[in-house]
Amino acid sequence: MILASHGLIGSSIVQIDADWLAYYNRVIAAGGTLTTTEQNATKQLVADLKANSLWTPMKAIYPMVGASAAACAQNLKSSSFTGTFTATGWTFASTGATPNGTSAYMQTNFIPSVDIASASSNHISFYSRTNQSVATNCEMGAFDTSTGTPIVMLAIKSNSSGSDRYELRHFCLNGNIGPTPPLDTRGFACNTKISSGAVKGFWNNSLIGSAIVVDALTNKEIYIGGRNSNGTANTFSPKQCAFASIGDGLTDTQASNFYTAVQAFQTTLNRQIAP
Amino acid sequence: MLGYILTNQQANEVQGVFINPYCFINCVQDINDVWFFFGNEQDKETFKDSEYMWLFDLPQGEYIPKPSPFPYETN
């Protein structure tokens, strides 16, 4: 056997996930780097997502590793939806990507009306490592003021209704909805819809609230670090992003498994937030 | 917060311009619609090979943000 004759033992050859390898090659091709720990963490994340039937529902996954714009711009899931960052206002570190809350945001090139298969099945998520008391920011979102106000927003603490709340305006027509926000804004937020009109918000693996909405998909690109308001970024967030995702809707079980996988990922990188 | 002040012409010239494949320039308007650019010493490293280092030589001023669209969004 050729491999044996060259000193390679079959059992020592490690199968590397092709999707992870493609991601890693994108990071390298972009001029980025990943530490061994980051490589292992992202490899395991891919494995965990696949083992829990979560890989297919994901369309854009931003692990925020590599401590550079080039690396953090890469979508773990595919070569689509590669991000771009404002050239200033971001700080990239091993703990994630931190916007300045004034002018910095990330473009995802993800347009819900084009890239989301169903207005009644979708999710977005954001892992925050910043505790912020002010409630005027949006961690990610898009807002269309011109055609019946379709909106998607993930804001751990906003005051868009005049009182502080966790935003549940999730791929819907506008409406003032959302539960009382968490006291500490560090953690993993995941908003999901798997049937028409019914949004659930999960905060650190607990259901923080739910709402009935009118399904709608905005034709505006989703921004991270702020909200896209008809092509202009505003409501800039200063929260450090250690992970973000966009994709199909997740069941309660899938949302829980998703939290477990993402939390294990963060723990490997020693940047986890205890629930 | 201090920022670099641009004229409308300067802002139109640089807004959205990519200085590398993954980074673009973003300026914001303050409460008086004056354009501001924000950059620090670390950001200069990103710009050093571009033609836009002059942004860091602009006069600086105090930036007062526009009011948040919350809570009285009409849409």
Short description:
The complex is a heterodimer of chains A (275) and B (75). With 275 residues, chain A is an alpha+beta fold. In chain A, 21% of the residues lie in helices and 27% in strands.
Question: Can you describe what's shown?
Answer:
The complex is a heterodimer of chains A (275) and B (75). Chain A is α+β, with helices and mostly antiparallel strands. The longest helix of chain A is centred in the C-terminal third of the chain and has 17 residues, at 252-268. Chain A has helices at 2-5, 18-29, 36-51, 69-72, 112-115, 252-268, and strands at 58-62, 84-86, 90-93, 96-99, 106-107, 122-128, 140-143, 150-154, 172-173, 187-195, 198-203, 206-212, 223-224, 227-229, 232-234, 241-247. The radius of gyration of chain A is 19 Å and the shape is globular. In chain A, the strands form 4 sheets. Chain A has a 6-stranded antiparallel sheet, covered by helices on one side. A 5-stranded mixed sheet of chain A has the order 9-8-7-14-15, with no helix packed on it. Chain A has 6 helices and 16 strands. In chain A, helix 3 runs antiparallel to helix 6 (252-268). The model of chain A has no long low-confidence stretch (mean pLDDT 92). In chain A, a hairpin with a 2-residue loop joins strand 11 and strand 12 (206-212). In chain B, a hairpin with a 5-residue loop joins strand 4 and strand 5. Chain B has 2 helices and 6 strands, in the order βαββββαβ. The longest helix of chain B is centred in the first third of the chain and has 7 residues, at 8-14. With 75 residues, chain B is an alpha+beta fold. Chain B has a 4-stranded antiparallel sheet with strand order 4-5-1-6. Chain B has a two-stranded antiparallel sheet with strand order 2-3. Chain B starts with a strand and ends in a 13-residue tail after the last strand. At the A-B interface, strand 2 of A face strand 2, strand 3 and helix 2 of B. Strand 2 of chain A pairs parallel with strand 3 of chain B.
